[in-house]
Design a protein that fits this description.
Serine Threonine Protein Phosphatase 5, Tetratricopeptide repeat, 188 residues, mainly alpha
Length: 188
């Protein structure tokens, strides 16, 4: 982040803390128009629309733009940021149109799968991890478990000191997904 972006983010956070949503939105819109490559501003804007203002219509438009830009930029950070924004966050999407999230997640997943084949093990692990949450959310737990298993396999091959905590979290989530799938099979 450069000095201008840091300064702007400071102003935005001051407005957010004061619950001055009009000012915060205005600053975010101005910031995105001046700094269209700021992933953080896009994430913050989406967070504010969905979490703070609960404006699902504007949030949906923002997320569509976010996903489109992530695909156009073909950037790992943007692709993962968009996928995490939609499926790996604490956001309450209960009032958000599920079909919209599904469509956006599908577009991101398709692009990620194409891009993923040329990536190193660490990047593939990050992509598979992000996509696993999408597949779990849409009810395809079999694919989610497979993606988590591939992630764990890739992470196990990386330097231990860098990935030990990540591996523990992955194994915990994988166990949860597997137990979820077992319960689902028993119910059928």
């Amino acid at each position: 982040m450069d000095v201008a972006e840091q300064s702007l983010i400071g102003l935005i956070w001051s407005a957010i803390e004061a619950k001055d949503w009009k000012t915060a939105l205005s600053l975010l819109e101005d910031g995105i128009s001046v700094m269209p490559d700021s992933l953080y501003l896009f994430q913050l804007y989406a967070d504010m629309l969905i979490d703070e203002l609960q404006d699902m219509e504007a949030g949906c438009l923002m997320l569509r733009k976010f996903v489109r830009l992530a695909i156009e930029k073909n950037s790992k950070d943007w692709l993962l940021g968009a996928m995490h924004q939609l499926f790996y966050s604490s956001h309450d999407y209960s009032r958000f149109p599920f079909g919209e999230r599904l469509s956006m997640g599908k577009a991101l997943s398709e692009h990620i799968l194409t891009l993923c084949q040329w990536q190193n093990a660490h990047s593939r692990a990050e992509y598979y991890h992000a996509m696993a949450y999408f597949f779990h959310e849409i009810g395809n737990n079999v694919v989610a478990v497979e993606l988590f298993e591939m992630t764990v396999t890739l992470v196990k091959g990386l330097p231990i000191q860098d990935e030990l905590k990540q591996l523990a979290r992955l194994l915990k989530t994988l166990a949860e997904y597997k137990s979820h799938e077992a319960v689902r099979v028993e119910l059928l």
